[in-house]
């Protein structure tokens, strides 16, 4: 399958970004699979300007990875490099490629419904791959993880799937583990939309051209809804970081045990 962006291509904006991030040329795998819908979405959002879309693609991937790594280092300390990490709903590796700069690839698993995306990440980044499922009840995984990272999945799920995926993923955590996932809060609801009393607003619209919008739409939730969903799932405790991802999505940290000391979490948002 051809690449939408080859590592040997020249992009002034991407080169400037990598320089700004302190990433030396040739030390980050820049390949983007042609089936990666995220790049196509960004090209459209930037009115066909591919160079600006590439900049946004890599910049957001680096920013998200930085946020996730801050939380991982806080929770796991020096053991972060020997921990078992699952990047769930990882797509084609927009974030994963940055995670494996700090984490040994052999300690990282990726899971996604796109089998080609999983294979791409296995081949390019050297991680372990798991093909996921649309329905939580169809997802089989024998592994257990010290941390599970979920970027922009719960921002797309209807209520029943939201709770069910929380239950499944929390069940995959090892003792002392951590589930990190992002949400759209009521603060970023579209203009004119009022949050329902239930605390969740789901619309059958998304950037995906291949997934049914009834399964993968657009979701906004309140903190109260997330706490209720966690209670219904397993009773995990919650800490929410407002606009913790790309200064837009909230970052939710779910802990299997109550009373986690958060005083040493010094999170630096974008």
Task: Provide a descriptive summary of the structure in words.
With 270 residues, the chain is of the alpha/beta class. Helix content is 32%, strand content 22%. It is built from seven helices and eleven strands. The strands form three sheets. Strands 5-4-3-6-7-11-10 form a seven-stranded mixed beta sheet, sandwiched between helices. It has a two-stranded antiparallel ribbon with strand order 1-2. A two-stranded antiparallel ribbon has the order 8-9. Strand 3, helix 4 (96-102) and strand 4 form a beta-alpha-beta unit. Helix 1 runs parallel beside helix 3 and helix 6 crosses helix 7 (223-233). The radius of gyration is 18 Å and the shape is globular. The mean pLDDT is 96.
Features:
single chain; 270 residues; alpha/beta; 7 helices; 32% helix; 22% strand; globular
What global shape is seen? globular
**Poorly predicted segments:** none
Strand order of the largest sheet: 5-4-3-6-7-11-10
Count of individual beta strands: 11
Helix content: 25-40%
Question: What is the helix/strand order?
Answer: EHEHHEHEHEEHEEEHEE
Specify the biggest β-sheet: 7 strands, mixed
**Kindly, what is the distance between the CA atoms of the first and last residues, rounded to a whole number of angstroms?**
34 Å
Alpha carbon gyration radius: 18 Å
Percentage beta strand: 15-25%
Number of helices: 7
Mean pLDDT: 96
Category from helices, strands and their pairing: alpha/beta
């Amino acid at each position: 399958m051809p690449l939408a962006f080859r590592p040997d291509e020249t992009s002034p904006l991407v080169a400037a970004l990598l320089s700004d991030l302190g990433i030396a040329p040739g030390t980050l795998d820049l390949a983007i699979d042609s089936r990666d819908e995220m790049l196509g979405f960004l090209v459209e959002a930037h009115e066909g300007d591919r160079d600006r879309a590439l900049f946004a693609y890599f910049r957001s991937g680096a920013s998200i990875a930085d946020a996730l790594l801050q939380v991982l280092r806080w929770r796991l300390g020096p053991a972060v490099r020997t921990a078992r990490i699952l990047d769930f709903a990882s797509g084609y590796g927009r974030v994963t490629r940055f995670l494996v700069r700090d984490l040994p690839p052999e300690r990282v698993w990726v899971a996604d419904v796109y089998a080609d995306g999983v294979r791409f990440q296995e081949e390019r980044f050297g991680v372990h791959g798991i093909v996921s499922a649309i329905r939580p009840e169809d997802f089989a995984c024998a592994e257990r993880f010290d941390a599970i990272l979920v970027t922009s999945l719960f921002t797309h799920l209807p209520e029943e799937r939201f709770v069910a995926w929380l239950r499944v993923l929390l069940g995959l955590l090892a003792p002392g583990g951590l589930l990190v996932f992002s949400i759209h809060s009521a603060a970023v609801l579209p203009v004119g939309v009022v949050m329902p009393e239930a605390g969740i607003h789901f619309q059958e619209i998304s950037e995906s051209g291949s997934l049914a919008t009834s399964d993968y739409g657009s979701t906004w939730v309140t903190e109260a809804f997330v706490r209720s969903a966690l209670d219904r799932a397993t009773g995990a405790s919650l800490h929410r970081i407002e606009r913790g991802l790309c200064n837009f999505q909230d970052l939710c940290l779910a802990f299997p045990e109550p009373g986690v000391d958060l005083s040493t979490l010094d999170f630096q948002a974008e």
